[in-house]
């Protein structure tokens, strides 16, 4: 069942995020819970889950962004798409993306965007099969400068590869 995340989904969603970013250091000051609650309380931000047998097995994060162009139509950014690693390859990813996109269209969005840091062809084929095109726009990211840490040294090339054409 596809649904909006609830406060009680916090632990399950965080477990999925640990699968997405296994090298992220654990947050121990409670700021993750504060941010989670802010997302749930914000009209234009939506965390969704896919639930099977009363277990959260996938999640997406839909950001609806007000916009002055395109007849003042909002656009969507989809982030943090995760299907539990033990349940991948069964259509759950396509299902949660399809439902998330429908939420964007129902909100009047004229486009939905997502970016992936993955260089795996299977990941790109998955997003193409979900209706996304890598040919419409070029995505760039910028990050604030910071000092290198030991955690950076353990990241794989797939995790730090730049987005866009090689």
UniProtKB/TrEMBL annotation:
Chain positions covered by the region annotation Disordered: 135-166
One MF term in the entry's GO annotations: acyltransferase activity, transferring groups other than amino-acyl groups
Task: Specify whether Transmembrane is a keyword of the entry.
Answer: no
Coiled coil ranges (UniProt) are none
The chain positions of domain N-acetyltransferase read: 1-147
Which keywords does this chain's UniProt record carry? Acyltransferase, Transferase
Report biased composition (Basic and acidic residues) as residue ranges: 135-160
Q: Which Pfam families match?
A: Acetyltransf_1
- Does the keyword Isomerase belong to this entry? no
- The protein in question is named N-acetylglutamate synthase-like GNAT family acetyltransferase
Source organism: Actinopolymorpha pittospori
């Amino acid at each position: 069942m596809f649904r909006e995340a609830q406060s009680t989904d916090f632990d399950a969603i965080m477990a999925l995020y640990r699968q997405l970013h296994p090298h992220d250091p654990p947050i121990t000051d409670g700021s993750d819970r504060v941010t989670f609650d802010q997302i749930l309380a914000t009209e234009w931000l939506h965390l969704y889950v896919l639930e099977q047998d009363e277990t959260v097995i996938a999640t997406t994060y839909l950001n609806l962004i007000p916009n002055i162009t395109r007849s003042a139509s909002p656009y969507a950014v989809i982030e943090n798409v995760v299907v539990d690693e033990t349940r991948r390859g069964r259509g759950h990813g396509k299902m949660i993306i399809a439902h998330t996109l429908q939420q964007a269209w129902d909100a009047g969005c004229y486009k939905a965007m997502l970016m992936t840091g993955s260089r795996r062809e299977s990941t790109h084929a998955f997003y193409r099969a979900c209706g996304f095109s890598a040919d419409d726009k070029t995505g760039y990211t910028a990050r604030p400068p910071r000092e290198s840490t030991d955690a950076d040294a353990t990241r794989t090339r797939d995790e730090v590869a730049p987005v866009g054409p090689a």
